Amino acid sequence: MILRRRAVLLVMLLLTAVPLVLAGCTGNPIKRASRPAPAPPKLAITPAPDSKDLPTSVEIGTTVTGGKVTEVVVTDPNGVRVDGALRPDGSGWMPGKALANKQAYTAQVTAKNDAGKKVTQKTNFTTMDKPAKRTVTNLNLQSDQTYGVAMPITVAFDSDIPKDARAGIQRRLLVNTDPPQPGVWAWEANGRQVSYRAPDFWRPGTTISVRAALDGVPMGGGSFGDTDRTGTAKIASNRLFLEIDNATKQMSVFKDDTLVKKIPVSLGKSSTPTSSGKMVIMEKHDSTVFDTTGSPDPYVVTVQNAQRLTWGGEFIHAAPWSVYAQGEANVSHGCTNVSDANAAWLMETTRIGDLVTIKGTEVTLDQGNGWTAWNVGWDEFVKGSALPVPADLKPAPPAPPAPGGPASGGPPAADKPAGPAPAPTSSTGGR
């Protein structure tokens, strides 16, 4: 009886469990939420469709959200593709050379995201007629040359560039260095010169490539840039610095931080003093003529082995007529006088781009009177940029003053700017 009751109980339990199992198998399945398909990138481009009378330097501006630009194709009316490239930051496409005047172009831009979704936009525009006014430009770095480690890259203009045109010009000045040594462009006060340097001197052996893509770029006042200029050059394999001290009337020549020669000098007399400051050798002449006709103290003289330091006419040069005073007294019209033998040795030893520091004279160097990028410290130099300075190149904040110390300090006198620079003059020198 007991076994029979257990069998009945077992059957009842099984019959009770089956519906539960069946209910579990026949119920509604759980629905999983489906993911939305990835959206294509959002893309905006410039110039606007049907834009007219654009500068021949026009770029295709690109703004992308959720992706990046993968291709820009610009074609002329014959369907011929225009050479050009995206900027490294993807903010726009720049033509390889200025576009043709009074010409129609079509641009097609494609952007893509990581999911492979694409978006394409087109625009068309027409460039302006040939401008009536051009600004003449000059790039100081020439291809296949070797320069000193203090060589700044400068672009000069034959007229003042207004402040509201400087950022657009600066965006068209492209520098590449190998090994990489990032720097900043900075403008002189009058806008006649913009200079590029890194926080420190170039590493010996560096290769520098520059493109001043200024053909057709608006320069202000209805004027446009004259042409594109390029240069690729090397920095010398050693560091050479010249230091001239008015107190001792001596020039010290350092090569890779080793003093290699001391040279007696005669600087400018009190009525025509030599400038104190940090300047760079800009030109080297085996022979040249100094002509100061029209000045209060006019003269015309031929000098040998002359090296230009300023636009205003300060040179290092041979001056056999002042050997008696070299190392003793200042008798020149502002130049640094040395003997024939020392001038010849300097010509063989120095390079354009070598730094020359002069100290202790009655006047300081005007900023912009020559290649004066090193005449101010880095924190002062970058203030001249018309574009935001990259975060990694901004000057470090000043250190807090030491307890009991002065609240603030300043750079040495040679590092302070001396006011706006004069425009380059035709004066060739003062003996």
Automatic annotation (TrEMBL):
Residues 395-404 have a biased composition (Pro residues). The active site is at H317 (proton donor/acceptor), C335 (nucleophile). Pathway: Cell wall biogenesis; peptidoglycan biosynthesis. SUPFAM superfamilies: L,D-transpeptidase catalytic domain-like (SSF141523). Keywords: Acyltransferase, Cell shape, Cell wall biogenesis/degradation, Peptidoglycan synthesis, Signal, Transferase. The keyword Transferase applies. InterPro entries: Big_10 (IPR041280), LD-transpeptidase (IPR050979), LD_TPept_cat_dom (IPR005490), Transpep_catalytic_dom (IPR038063). Residues 29-54, 388-431 are annotated as: Disordered. Residues 1-23 form the signal peptide. It holds the Pfam family YkuD. The keyword Cell wall biogenesis/degradation applies. Residues 410-431 have a biased composition (Low complexity). Residues 240-359 form the L,D-TPase catalytic domain. This is Ig-like domain-containing protein. It comes from Plantactinospora solaniradicis. The lineage of its organism: Bacteria, Bacillati, Actinomycetota, Actinomycetes, Micromonosporales.
